Amino acid sequence: MSPIAHADAGLKLRPGSFGPNTEGAWKSKQGRPDSRGNARFALFLQKNTLTAEFVAAYAVVDNIEGTPVSELTGLSWEHRTDGHCGAGAPRWNLVVEDPGGISHTVFLGCATADHLEPTGDPNWMKDAYDATAIQAALLAAGVDPGATITQLYVLFDEGTDTATGGLITAAGFVYLDNITVELGGTPKVFSSPGDNGS
To answer: Which of 5, 41, 54, 88 is at a distance of 20 to 30 A from 121, taking alpha carbons?
Structure first.
């Protein structure tokens, strides 16, 4: 079985968190319409503490390991606009290994993605990286074109930092929906925990 066929058949999205005041979990009645059912799930990522604290929420894409990085043709999600969309969080962490065994981590942040308001709902914004943007980020990081993916995950590690006078300058959370990993032009969309299959 080719890496693409394997990944397309078995990609799963596993949320979680580490450290106090963090959460990574699917929440019902918070998102856009689901691919099945009417629970309107969204992925909730929260860091309810200062950015400097070494804690985070995340969502790991399982079963993508070993896929050639050249086959990654798109990454996107929709974020609810009452949450945080910064340069560093939420972000895709793309970890790859080149043919010489050297590992690289490439960061693809929310704020630097292409933004498009989803049709019919101004409370959500789509943040996307196409194949050209992904390859440009890999090139800038010095990644060999023959590299393979070892890890792919969404990380939320920016918190509720305060400015002078105690005003909160960051929300410390985000709701994500329609999280999409595209391999070889074929998208896998996660709109609820049911999209992980059986």
So the answer is: 88
The residues with which 156 forms a beta bridge, in sequence order, are: 57
* Residue 7's pLDDT band (cuts 50, 70, 90): very low
What percent of the residues of the chain are helix, what percent strand, and what percent coil, each to the nearest 5? 15, 45, 45
Q: Give the strands of the sheet with 91-97, arranged side by side.
A: 12-18, 56-62, 148-156, 91-97, 103-109
Which strand (E) or helix (H) includes residue 144? none
How is residue 96 written in tokens?
Answer: 């790859």
Grade residue 164 by pLDDT with cuts at 50, 70 and 90.
very low
- The CATH code of domain 3-196 reads 2.60.120
Q: Are strands 103-109 and 114-116 parallel, antiparallel or unpaired?
A: unpaired
Higher per-residue confidence, 65 vs 4: 65
Phi/psi of residue 48, nearest 5 degrees:
-95, 60
Q: What mean pLDDT do residues 142-165 have? A: 87
The domain spans of the chain are 3-196
Nearest C-alpha neighbor of 134 from the set 104, 113, 111: 113
Round the average pLDDT of the chain to a whole number and report it: 90
How far are the Cα atoms of 42, 50, 135, 164 from residue 74, in angstroms, in the given order?
20, 31, 10, 40
Phi/psi at 196 (5° precision): -80, -10
